[in-house]
Amino acid sequence: MLINNDSGNVSLVLAVGGDISEGGGRPIVVKNYIEAYVWTREDETETVEQALSNRDPDCTVRLVSEPMCEGLAMPASDANGFYTLAEGQQRPLRFYSFEH
């Protein structure tokens, strides 16, 4: 997937997971196996399409390398980060902060 915006292109090749927060600054997170891209909507009226197409991500988070790590979720009570979980048994639940 390639997002075209006014400031350039953001490649989301092999996007494997994502989530949209209901609280806080209403972040949108889309990830591949290497990085997660974070956009924060301007206000409650900005759509997901507008947020992704109008500007570059507000933050890019480098992820720990894990095979088959497609699971991503943001806690409903905290819009300051997200969790990832890889497939399989005994896999760690990892938290990544938007602030780094």
Overall mean pLDDT stands at 81
SS strand fraction: 35-45%
What sequence of helices (H) and strands (E) makes up the elements? EEEEEHEEEE
Count helical runs.
1
Structural class designation = mainly beta
Work out the number of β strands: 9
Shape category: globular
Q: Estimate percent helicity.
A: under 10%
Low-confidence stretches: none
Q: Round the Cα radius of gyration to an integer and report it.
A: 13 Å
Q: Major beta sheet, specifics? A: 4 strands, antiparallel
| Total domains | 1
How would you write the strand order of the largest sheet? 3-4-5-6
Q: Alpha-carbon distance between the termini?
A: 26 Å
Structural notes for this entry:
It contains one helix and nine strands. It starts with a strand and ends with a strand. It has one helix at 48-54, and strands at 2-5, 8-11, 17-20, 27-31, 35-40, 59-62, 71-73, 81-85, 94-97. The chain has one domain (2-97). It is mainly beta.
Secondary structure elements and pairings:
Blueprint: E1 2-5, E2 8-11, E3 17-20, E4 27-31, E5 35-40, H1 48-54, E6 59-62, E7 71-73, E8 81-85, E9 94-97
Antiparallel strand pairs: 1-2, 3-4, 4-5, 5-6, 7-8, 8-9
What descriptors fit this protein?
mainly beta, 100 residues, 1 helix, four-stranded antiparallel beta sheet
